[in-house]
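ARCHIVE CARD
Drawer: 12
Card no.: 0347
Subject: one protein chain, sequence and derived structure
Cross-reference: see card 0346
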Amino acid sequence: MASGRLDLFIAKLPPQTVVLTLNCSDSASELLSIPSHTPLILQRGTIKQTIQLQLLEGRECFADFIEMNYTLARQLQLIALRRYLLTYNPIDRSLTIIPSPLSETTAVLASSTLSSSTLSVGYELLSRLGIPERQGSLLNVRQGKNTAKFRLHIPANLSDERLRLPTIWLQKWKLTSNHSYLLQYDQRNSTLTLAANQNANR
């Protein structure tokens, strides 16, 4: 058995072709053990489809991803830009796919000079958390009992891994700039949660 978490993208691919782009993060993916270019069964619940799988090595990406065409995704009731857990069973050559909407990581929190209603999330951090790359979309941000809505801003620098919050909110929520925090993102309700200060000064 081998498993891995991947983000789903819709692509112009042949009807039964699925492409996995792996090793985007620091650790090697278990899914590299899957035989490529051989028929496999992709299964979501009771829905099954025979597919041809291709494996690619990740470049300029920070989270592994899976690509298929719109028709196949619809048949399997999968949603684009969502994160899924993929598990390979070599005995029956099956790939089981289930939603995996919760992601967490640590990141440095910094102050932002953007408007008070804008949250800046670096692209690398965005990828690690599974936040869809939609400039200007709304995010719910929670810290303890505090909640607020922000517009998402994505800096152009692909290697940016900081979370930038307007100074007024840092002060209001008593957060410490340039300190590391545990972050959790839930794709089901677009909520980013900031946990207690990890006291890791960078």
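Annotation on reverse: Residues 123-129 form the longest helix (7 residues). The helical segments are 70-75, 123-129, 167-172.
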